[in-house]
Amino acid sequence: MQKPHSREDLSYMVEMIGITKRFPGIVANDQISFAVRPGEIHALLGENGAGKSTLMSILTGLYRPDEGEIRLRGQQVHLQSPRDAVQRGIGMVHQHFKLVNSFTVAENILLGLQDGTGEVYQLHEINKKIEACSREYGLQLDPQAKIWQLSVGEQQRAEIIKLLYRGADLLILDEPTAVLTPQEATELYKTLRRMAELGKSVIVISHKLSEVLEHTDAITVLRSGRSVGTVATSGTSEQELTQMMVGRMLCPVLDKANVMPGKPVLTLENVTALGDRGLPALKEVTLTVNGGEILGIAGVAGNGQKELAEVIAGLRAIESGTKWINSVDHTGDTPQAAIHAGVSYIPEDRLGTGLVPNLNAVENILLKMYQKMPGWRINWSQAARDTTAIIKQHDIKIAHLDAPVKMLSGGNLQKLLLGREIFHHPELIVAMYPMRGLDIGAIETIRKLLLEVRAAGKGVLLISEELDELTCMADRIAVFHEGMVMGVVRPQEVTIETIGVMMAGKRMAVAMSGN
Amino acid sequence: MEVSPWIAILATGIVAGIPILLAALGEILAERAGVINLGVEGMMLIGAVVGFMVSLQSNSPWVGLIAAVLAGAMMALIHAFLTITLRANQVVSGLALTIFGTGLSGYLGKSFIGVPLTATFKPVPVPGLSQIPAIGPIFFNHDLLVYIAYGLVALLWFFLFRTRSGLELRAVGENPAAADAAGLNVFLIRYACVIAGGMFAGMAGAYLSLAYAPSWLENMTAGRGWIAVALVIFGVWNPTKAFLGSFFFGTIDVLGFHMQTLGIVVSSFFLKMLPYVFTIAVLIVATRETKTRRVAIPEALGVPYVREER
């Protein structure tokens, strides 16, 4: 581990020294120091709530630190506002892009720009300047395209060009690959590398270890508001980083009990269903989930996963084909009937489809329970008891039962949702991206819960984009491409590359033969 | 000068369209910045009564006009405070202001009903232009406010689509978070647009009581504020299209008076209904259009802006 800053070396783009920031009740940043050189891609790694966003909000002028100093190119600065930071060459690409959809790229770049040109603007001149700027950094983008016409990757490019056009030397990217396809992510890092070669500094906030290891020069790890240390990427490993992040070693091999697969819990036979646009989103899908088994669904997002989950949960009509649950035909099920048949659905948006944001924990638990209560009265005391039991069992951190659940953090929400579902002993859990956006601690809990369901002899259908996660969790993996099953593989028998080739649309036999 | 009945109809159509146009221009400003103002009708009424009263007192239509514009601004300030600062529901606030404006204007103007007004705006033909056959009498033989309205259409269009401030204003209505991130003051811009919108509405009201039908009648706007709101949608938030639309509505509005000169016998009640029937028809067509094609509904329209902080 190298010292984050040393006096004799003035060749840092930015140094943050002993930064402390307190919010009522918590210390978000506690004596954090770190420094970034010009030409360096520096990762800021940490779990949710480790203090990454607060630290970057200080660096972009949104918050003022309670203690500590910031040096920019060796000079101490007091950043007054985000605008001040931008003028000093610090720019940030937020996770949610700050772009006006109906404007062109050029108009977005022009917005709020203080370049001394007059009140009446000449778009064609700006277009030319933007083109020159994007050529220099190898960022291909048509300045006259409207934002809504662009892919997410292109929109991100627009954000980056916006910063470069304002003369940013230090670019901060918050979870930049969260919304990108693997190809777009590779492309992004190529661009970032090129900017680094031209002398810029890049800070990437991330919690994707593999990506950070592959593409950055140095990594600073934060844990609960403190800096654990800065390491050179070339001299570290996934194990070491994980340990730094969570403060304890995560067992890479999951504690997966040997469970004999039981009878099929769910069988889909040649199921075809339409997507939201009225086009077939599932085409002749045939698959089986057995009791005591986790079936993983791999695929690039938007290849029929959502429709698959909705068909099983009874939320989407089946055009043709049959759905069997525990060997009973449930093809035409309503969501209610699917629930009664023992299907439990963990949707992608836990706060919306999964839980009602403005209702409290008890009311949310009650939603799945009140129909089973005898008579017409709601038994509130029983609901409160059950809620308390669920909260205790899964160690959910909740201030009080009456608070709307939208106040909970992502991990606690997911635990509450999964806890509610498991409480009713489902036959099958359909979980869509259940670990997305959670920190490592919460991911571990969710994994454990799903494995417990499996150990109890029930079925789990796990939809995920993270192949690492699927290969360590699932017993079998069905690979989806354009609404079709490309094949079902056992993770220990194939490589991740093979699954990747299948995700791109090659059938299993072709993928295995290595073509 | 011999005037054909059609030219007369179109010429009065322009004039009848002016109050709707002025109100619609104000509404475009407010909605482009993301705030729906359904208080236009009430603001027009306040503008009309205040304009009339002040004009009567000062014996100058211009002083009356300025008073009407300020009265509209005051009404809009209430709307801005409620919807931008307190983040109240924009529709509810607007409706309340219309009801309030209707009541207040009726109360203020009670003793002025039927009072004749001498200080009014009178037609001033534009030298040269008014001599052009057909075009001249239709467009250039009116009072000064009509020409000012023409100028405002062009000015507003240029402002919205060619200047930085216009770009910033539109950004605030489309994505206030992005505008905020770009260093713009979302609240200030929205306040300015809503208040400017109220000024336009006040001016529209004054046009009715000082130029179009120089007098005060209770509820004399007769739903023109609502037509203006519809006109904004019809004109896809574009001042030039709103001008065409106001011409169209104005013409339908005056068609009733002219039916008799054309020798067509229709119930006057039926004719009075026409502009509103057209409003509904236009809304159906326009909203279908906006749904199928991707046109300019400001994305953040009706949504209060809350800065994300923790």
TrEMBL record, chain A:
SUPFAM superfamilies: P-loop containing nucleoside triphosphate hydrolases. GO terms for cellular component: plasma membrane. It is found in: Cell membrane. One of its GO terms (molecular function) is ATP hydrolysis activity. SMART domains: AAA. Residues 14-249, 266-507 form the ABC transporter domain. The keyword Lipoprotein does not apply. The keyword Transport applies. Signal peptide: none annotated. Keywords: ATP-binding, Cell membrane, Membrane, Nucleotide-binding, Repeat, Translocase, Transport. It is a peripheral membrane protein. InterPro entries: AAA+_ATPase, ABC_carbohydrate_import_ATPase, ABC_transporter-like_ATP-bd, ABC_transporter-like_CS, P-loop_NTPase. It comes from the Bacteria. CDD domains: ABC_Carb_Monos_I (cd03216), ABC_Carb_Monos_II (cd03215). This is Nucleoside ABC transporter ATP-binding protein. It comes from Heliophilum fasciatum.
UniProtKB/TrEMBL annotation, chain B:
It is a multi-pass membrane protein. GO terms for molecular function: transmembrane transporter activity. Its main location: membrane. It is found in: Cell membrane. InterPro entries: ABC_transp_permease (IPR001851). The keyword Transmembrane applies. This is Nucleoside ABC transporter membrane protein.
